[in-house]
């Protein structure tokens, strides 16, 4: 098949597939174009080029692992009640029950490895090139919620440094992933202003001390608990957990049907962090969305959480 004809017919769907497999939306097209370029000779000879390109794309992103398990939920909400949540809990190993894979979203590969190895679970880390900070966990094999077989080696899928040139938004991406680790694992603490205004679906709900932990009452009720509940949901994608996307810019007037938060004294652009579990959220285009606003000193002075709604943001 002619390369240009195949690209015109299938590129959009392949970009969607790359995003579903964990590549940030703004980078998916680059990865797809690289795979098509590498597979040109085989595409020309193939009866159905998808039989060539789709496996190659999966190999590029997921390291060639075969997935036959379906993701199911892991109860993580109890983590929010821990004063300093430094690790995720999963089903306890006993004689009659295999251990269950936890969600590792919000952990680095090193933190995830230590968490699993504490329970004598062998770990292999595979890197996926992205413009996000290296070493952030994207998913696992087996995915979250699956039983871990006897002597099974768990593959932790994490970001790695890409060979292509990344946009000049590295500070924004690092800030977003640090904030995610702060919320979920408690192993990082972003540079907050002395007082941080918290918004939910466009309305200010409280102001928290910039030195407080994510398990403090203000953070928990407004942001931490909803995020932990979301990441513990079944994620119907090959990674087994929500896909993380980070962008920088001026927030739209509405996000998933909710009005824009407008923190006093915040500067633009702000950083937007989107967690997309898939399923209905992917159809609606509305994942769990967090905007991080900075003051003139570059400290996070406002955090706005938008819960998934029924209408996509314009």
How many angstroms separate the termini?
Answer: 37 Å
Work out the strand percent: 15-25%
Question: What is CATH's topology name of the largest domain?
Answer: Nuclear Transport Factor 2, Chain: A
Percent helix range: 25-40%
Gross morphology is globular
- Radius of gyration, in Å, reads 20 Å
What value does the average pLDDT take? 81
CATH-scheme architecture of the largest domain:
Roll
Order of helices and strands: HHHHHEEEHEEHEEEEHEE
- Separate helix tally: 8
Number of strands: 11
Briefly note the structural class of the backbone: alpha+beta
**Main beta-sheet annotation:** 6 strands, mixed
**Uncertain spans:** 64-94, 310-314
Number of domains: 3
Strand order in the sheet with the most strands: 5-4-11-10-9-6
Organism: Nocardioides exalbidus
Keywords: Membrane, Transmembrane, Transmembrane helix
InterPro entries: PASTA_dom
Pfam families: PASTA (PF03793)
Please explain how this structure is put together.
44% of the residues are buried. Helix 1 (3-20) crosses helix 2 (25-38) and helix 2 crosses helix 4 (50-62). The longest helix is centred in the first third of the chain and has 18 residues, at 3-20. A hairpin with a 2-residue loop joins strand 4 (192-200) and strand 5. The chain is α+β, with helices and mostly antiparallel strands. It has a 6-stranded mixed β-sheet, with helices on one face. The model is unreliable at 64-94 and 310-314 (pLDDT under 50). It has 3 domains: 3-62; 77-160, 2-Layer Sandwich (Trypsin Inhibitor V, Chain A); 170-306, Nuclear Transport Factor 2, Chain: A (Roll), CATH 3.10.450. It has helices at 3-20, 25-38, 40-45, 50-62, 109-117, 170-184, 217-231, 280-284, and strands at residues 123-129, 137-141, 154-160, 192-200, 203-209, 243-249, 254-255, 258-259, 267-276, 288-294, 300-306. The chain has 8 helices and 11 strands. It starts with a helix and ends in an 8-residue tail after the last strand.
């Amino acid at each position: 098949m002619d390369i240009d004809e195949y690209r015109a017919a299938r590129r959009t769907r392949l970009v969607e597939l790359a995003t579903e497999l964990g590549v940030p939306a703004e980078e998916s097209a680059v990865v797809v174009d690289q795979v098509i370029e590498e597979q040109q000779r085989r595409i020309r000879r193939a009866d159905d080029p998808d039989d060539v390109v789709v496996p190659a794309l999966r190999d590029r992103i997921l390291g060639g692992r075969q997935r036959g398990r379906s993701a199911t939920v892991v109860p993580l909400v109890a983590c929010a009640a821990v004063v300093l949540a430094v690790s995720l809990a999963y089903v306890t190993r006993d004689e009659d029950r295999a251990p269950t894979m936890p969600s590792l979203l919000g952990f680095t590969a090193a933190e995830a490895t230590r968490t699993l190895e504490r329970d004598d679970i062998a770990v292999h880390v595979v890197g996926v090139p992205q413009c996000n900070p290296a070493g952030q966990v994207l998913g696992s094999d087996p995915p979250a919620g699956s039983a871990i077989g006897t002597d099974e080696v768990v593959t932790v899928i994490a970001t790695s440094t890409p060979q292509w040139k990344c946009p000049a938004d590295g500070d924004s991406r690092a800030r977003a992933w640090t904030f995610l680790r702060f919320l979920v694992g408690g192993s990082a603490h972003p540079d907050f202003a002395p007082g941080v205004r918290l918004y939910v679906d466009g309305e200010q709900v409280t102001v928290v001390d910039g030195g407080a932990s994510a398990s403090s009452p203000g953070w928990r009720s407004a942001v931490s608990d909803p995020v932990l509940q979301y990441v513990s949901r079944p994620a119907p994608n090959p990674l087994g957990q929500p896909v993380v996307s980070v962008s920088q810019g001026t927030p739209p007037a509405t996000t998933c049907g909710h009005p824009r938060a407008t923190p006093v004294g915040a500067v633009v652009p702000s950083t937007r962090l989107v967690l997309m579990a898939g399923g209905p959220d992917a159809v609606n285009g509305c994942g769990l969305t967090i905007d991080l606003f900075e003051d003139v000193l570059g400290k996070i002075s406002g955090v706005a959480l938008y819960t998934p709604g029924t209408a996509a943001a314009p």
